[in-house]
Amino acid sequence: MNRTTLSLFAGTAALAAVTAFAAVATPAASGAAAPRTAARLPVERTGLLCPAPSDSDIADTTYTSFTPVTKGAAHNGTARLRTADGDAAGSGKGKGGKQSTGRPVLTPKAPGTPVTGDTSGAAPALVGTADGGFAPGWTLQETTEVPVGTGRGLLGVNCTGADTEFWFPGAATAAGRTDYVHLTNPDDSAAVVDIELFGKDGAIKSPLGENLTVKPHTGKAFLLSTLTDERQADLTLHVGVRSGRVGAAVQALDDKAGGDWLAAAADPAGSLVLPGIPKDATDVRLIAFTPGDDDADLKIRLASPDGLITPAGNETLHVKSGMTGAVDLGDVTRGEAGSLVLTPTGRPVPVVAALQVVRGKGGNKETAFIPATAPVGTRATSADNRAKGTTLALTAPTATATVKVTASAGSEGGTPVTRTYTVKSGTTQDIAAPVPAGLKGTYALTVEPTSGGPVYAARTLAVTGTGLPAFTVQTLPNDHGTVAVPQAEEDLAILQK
Fold it and tell me: What's the whole-model pTM score?
């Protein structure tokens, strides 16, 4: 799945043509020095989509916008949100006031400072665009608190770009679960979409999920239990777009164990990392699916603070081709936060996976989801962090890494703070996230690996005082704030020679 970053396309295409022509006279043949690798420049335009947060009249939703400071970015630009039906929503207060129409209002501030906007009750899906200096690494977080009812608790999701394919291991149609897949179309033409479901025995017949239309500039939610008569607790949902593009997320609501958003998993791969299992998790369930023709055999290990551990009794997972496999890992963290690392026992077979994580016991449970994610790469960003209840998990599965973490200024005041952490190979470091000095409001966290191996990250936000162990977990893949662009001047110099 690729985040939408529309930047420098025209210039890149022109430069690509120059590069292709210059390749005829290679440096070896002409005697010229070899050109440098492509430069990385800040993106100039980014699009993000936020699903409709809730249909509950007593839900409270906060949207948080943040653009990290990016070297070389433009000094001007704009960022705005509008409802998916095309009505503008971007000219109101920037300090979290509530709008009488019920539509969220949010005016982003300059890069480096977050801004929030609130709404109560049911609200529509949102379409966001940012250009110029607001585009590189632009991050939007949607956080909803629902005090009672199905799915009560804290629900959080990162607003994401439009794409043409999404995988959601961890969906369900079982009794007690109410799962919706939310699709948002940001474009001027209709999108045509197929929703496929795969259970423990393979593909589930679901003709009602075929050839679905999402009208231009609209958001639409489909209740999974209306697409099939089968009731299963562990499903993999696949969204494939025949024409157009959409944003997609699954809202998974449980009658007894709360609920949260299930974000799309990383693209199918032979090895996967699922970071940020809370230390007090009482039950962790792994759901995996292989879309290819071959079965997958996976080694299961927990990257703990002390190193990689193989859970006793759950050393491996066999996933049959086209079928959803699941295993209950229980309280696998045993009081120490960790991340799950999946690797092939033999020949790598592409797999998608996610974790369903529960905190609390009995009638005092809350649920969140952790999909397999891509590494942080150059930089990743988390918005809507708070003085209390914010935890950051950093995992280095293969080699020791050094990571710089910056807490931004607060939305209503505060001074940025930067800390550096060393994460040893095979471990997860669970840190109380740094907080800006003199913080007022919420703040953003920017994670930047500076040396060593790949780093995976997740942010947990917990809310106390509700009587529930309410929490939500968001993984932090690369924010794609920069794009590779060929070195035009050098290519032209080669051509001239």
Answer: 0.88
